[in-house]
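Quick look at the format.
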Amino acid sequence: MTSTAPAITPPALSSTAEEIADRLADELVVPPQLGGHLPGWWPQSLAHGGAGIALLHIERAATGCGPRSRAQHWLRFVTTGELSIGSNAALYYGAPAVEFVVHAAAPHLPGLATHNLPILEEATNRVIGHRLEAARHRLNRRQRPSLAEFDGIRGLAGLGALLLCRADPAAGPLEKVLAHLVALTEPVADGEELLPGWWSDVGPDGTLSPEYPGGHANTGMAHGIAGVLAVLALAHRRGFTVTGHASAIARILAWLDLWQHHRRVGPWWPYWITRQQLHAKGAIEEQPRRPSWCYGTLGVARAQQLAALALGDPRRQAEAELAGAAALSDPEQLRLIEDASLCHGYAGVIHIAGLMAADSSTPNPLTSTIAPLIEALTHHVTGQRDPGWMEGKAGTALALHALSVRPSTGWDRALLVV
């Protein structure tokens, strides 16, 4: 489960990054007592609770930078208690989140981790079965999907990424998940209008909104089609494909090409497309927004780079890498990043920039963007109060740790970027 090594950073900055990672890890030592945890410390939450913090300590123990006892302590905290397999269970919460953490731990804490895997995988398979059944019913009713059906945080894209972590992905429901994600890319008729299959009637927050009459098509990594693209590409690169797989990737890329916009520094993609914008046939007045992982140019660029690597398309790969470098070299876009987090802050863009640079076959400007980003992150990290992985200290510490020590646990697979 090792990740591609991020780009090499100057020794002084690597040292600074590791010092901050050490400090943040030391601030997240002891989980609250079971039954008495504070809000934000839910044991089975990868985004905001114990599962994400456990990942930090497991990674540090696996790379010899932290004590095994701390990792074991947090792993017990996460794996104790009844597994959640309800409608909110997905990669970031419940049994699937716990399975993800245990997969990360298994090679490094085998006695404690591996005996839980069969139970966890069975629980995750049940979650996926319910999701696929609900999706089939939705298709039979000729309704459009909710974001939670397919996205990376709550839906089948994230669950597909989890299945790729298993020792034998093909033994589980991966083929069915991939087949549904492929089917999701088929255009659907809405009267005389043709919409992409991932068009949702709700707003970006997942609820019906008068601000989004007719719904929207979401482009983000966290909640949109870029996350689906990334998972299809990652599966393709590992040899797990289904009928229509490459065509589905091509359809998503064609949609992103249609909505790619340009400014002086380079291309960018809107967070989402509304029905009004669709009717305007490409006209859009907004400017580039924050180039983060969850939404924005960097996440979309990484998904396209992965797709290009899967399909063997060097032209698109180069364009994706240049788009990422342009976004991270633009002071106007960088000013929109206001925190240190993985989700929408400096930690996320630093980690993805490193991955994109490492996967590039030619020298590119991405490498030169990393050092200024680290310096900017140091000015924001002191303000973090959230202990968690997605928006808090644990995720920031992992991204900083990865600048000096190659990741060993595949913790960043939850971001759908490796």
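Next, a different chain entirely:
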Amino acid sequence: MNTLSELAGDQQSGDKSRTFIFNDENHTLGNCLVSIITQYEDVLFCGYTVPHPAEQKMHLRIQTNGPPAIQILQRGLQDLEKKCDQVAANFKTARSEYMSKEMEDVD
């Protein structure tokens, strides 16, 4: 089953405007992507909706003033992955430091 599908934009905007439908996703991914993608200089609009709570679908709309919307989505997903990797690394470091301190306190 595809987890991502794409709705075409209008005739005037071509590939600069798209709505992407993420299956089995919700506000968590939508909010993260919007917060990252809206910071890009070439993005005119980025927003998401969850059309109905009973459906596990999230619609993400991207409109740009240059590059194709799919490129912006790919960039956003890559940047989100980097942020998640950094958070995981920071957590592991902090946990290791905490555990080391706890072991010192026990001695």
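The chain has a mean pLDDT of 90.

See the schema section for token definitions.
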